[in-house]
Amino acid sequence: MSDNQIPFLFDIPSVSQLTDKIKNVLEQNFIDILVEGETSNVSQSRNGHYYFTLKDSNASLPCVIWRSTAQRLDLNLTDGQQIVVGGDIQVYAPHGRYQMIVSLVQQAGIGKLQQAFEKLKAKLKAEGLFEDHHKKSLPKFPQTIGVVTSATGAAFQDIRSTLENRWPLANVKLYHASVQGVNAAPEIVKGIEYFSSTKNVDVMIIGRGGGSLEDLWPFNEEAVARAVFKSEVPVISAVGHEVDFSISDFVADARAATPTQAAVLAVPDINEIRFLVEDKAKKLEMHTVGAIQLYKDRVSNLARSHALQVVKQKMESARVTIQSLRENLAHKTDIRLRTQRQMLTDLTHALDKQNPNEPLEKGFVRVWQNEKWIRRSDAFSEDGSFELQWSDGSKKI
Amino acid sequence: MADQERPSFEEALKKLESIVEELENEEITLEDSVKLYEEGVKMSRFCTEILEQAELRIEQVNEADTQ
Questions:
Q1: Is A189 contained in some domain?
Q2: Residue A233 and residue A255 share a domain
Q3: Distance (Å, rounded) from C-alpha A160 to C-alpha A364?
Q4: pLDDT for B4 beyond 60
Q5: End-to-end C-alpha distance for chain B, whole angstroms
Q6: Whole-model pTM above 0.90?
Q7: What is the CATH number of the domain that holds A177?
Q8: Do B9 and A141 touch (CB under 8 A)?
Q9: A180 and A262, same domain (yes or no)
Q10: What is the predicted pLDDT for the residue at A391?
Q11: Taking the CA atoms of chain A, what radius of gyration do you get in angstroms?
């Protein structure tokens, strides 16, 4: 039918034939090409193939990375990465669609990176990610410090030796991540998310040593910035040298000029803390000694107080009274004793005067008969014997 | 003191600081100040012990696929 209507100028192809022609044109002209752009809609199929769209502001290019290629490149992709991909354009006829079969992935060139840096910085700033009120304060005495960097890099050695000198009390947990190349950003993100979700550290340091803009680029990736922003653990960002600023520096809770500086920011100086403890111990001593002295003073002041003095005086006067009473008592006893003694002498004297033998002393004689003093003549018996007593003796008659 | 009851360095230092602060208050009784002093000496020894015995510990938490 078509043969009749259409002149012999050209054959009208079927969709398959047309597609086949397009396929030939595209696939023969776009072999082993490079293209630069930003990744988006990155996904991995069940079979392990990567699908994503490489785009810039005006166009987008569907890309596929077969599983074997991804494994060979040890690839780890995320959205928003600035990359250069190499490969072939392939047309998949059943879907009428062309896509890039990627065999090589590299970080984008410096011009592209600088543009992307400014663009991302402006975007995140507009979203408020850099604002101070989002920034968490760093712990004063961190016990455990997470570090996301390369296990073999100079940055980790710097951090380690600084921590050893400044704060050997710390435990360091290292999450190894590549810090340059296309794989770095996704690995750094995993490290940040690991510490943020397990919360097994008090603070984390992410970073790397100096290098070119390309080398430092992973820390300018949006995914890293967002992970830092979302982290529930405070993040110190230390990328490159003093002059290098990265997007992660702006988002982080603290920015350190170098990895060494990050370690300094993260922990106190053990020497300062030694002095602090010494100082407190001295104050402890001083205040306690002071308190004891204070109480001593208070006690001795009270001892000198009027009330106690009055008591003391009362006691003294009582003592005096007792003493004088005691003396009085002794005196009176003495007097009494003496009086009695005198009386005794007088009585003895008086008694002496009443001595019945006194007449004998004067030469009188006493007559005894039958053991009786014969005082009267009628008491004398003439026929009995008797006795005469003188002062110096007696005679029986 | 059992191991799990040991305060962290930060707790011990804070305790020491607050004890000194309390001692600075002249209203405190002599008995209390002696008690505080004993506790403070304990804390300051504990802090010093931690500071002098500390040794940085390092552990890698993920596998090193550095190739």
A1: yes
A2: yes
A3: 143
A4: no
A5: 47
A6: no
A7: 3.40.50.261
A8: yes
A9: yes
A10: 83
A11: 63
pLDDT, tens digit (0-9, with 9 covering 90-100), for B12-29: 999 999 998 888 877 778
Q: Verify that A290 and A163 share a domain, yes or no.
A: no
Q: Whose structure tokens read 């005691």? A: A326
- Half-sphere exposure in the Cβ direction for B12 (13 Å, CA): 20
Q: Return d(Cα A119, Cα A41) in angstroms, integer.
A: 19
HSE-CB at A15 with a 13 A cutoff on CA atoms is 6
- Give per-residue pLDDT as tens, B35-45: 888 999 999 99
The minimum CA-CA distance between A144 and chain B, rounded to whole Å, is: 9
Nearest CA of chain A to the CA of B29: how many Å?
A: 8
Strand partners, A91: A98
Structure tokens at A371: 């053991």
Q: Does B25 touch chain A (CB under 8 A)?
A: no
Domain annotation covers residue A61: yes
Contact A51, A45 (CB under 8 A): yes
The predicted pLDDT at position A201 comes to 96
The tokens describing A103, both together, are 């065999």
A124/A222 Cα distance (integer angstroms): 9
Q: Are residues A196 and A303 in the same domain?
A: no
Of B19, B40, B66, the CB nearest to A151: B66
CB contacts of B38 in chain A (<8 Å) are: none
Please give the residue range of the domain that contains residue A342. Answer: 270-351
Mean pLDDT by 10 residues, chain A (397 residues): 58 88 91 92 92 94 93 86 92 92 88 87 94 94 95 94 93 95 93 96 95 90 96 95 86 94 94 90 86 83 78 87 91 89 87 76 85 84 84 85
Decide if A4 is inside a domain. Answer: no
Give the type of residue at A101. I
Separation of alpha carbons A263 and A174, rounded Å: 13
CATH number of A96's domain: 2.40.50.140
Supply the pLDDT for residue A208.
Answer: 95
Share of chain B above pLDDT 90, in %: 24
Domain count for chain A, please give it: 4
Cα–Cα distance list, A322 to A2, A118, A314, A317 (Å): 156, 106, 12, 8
**Residue B2, pLDDT score:** 42
Report if residue A1 sits inside a domain.
no
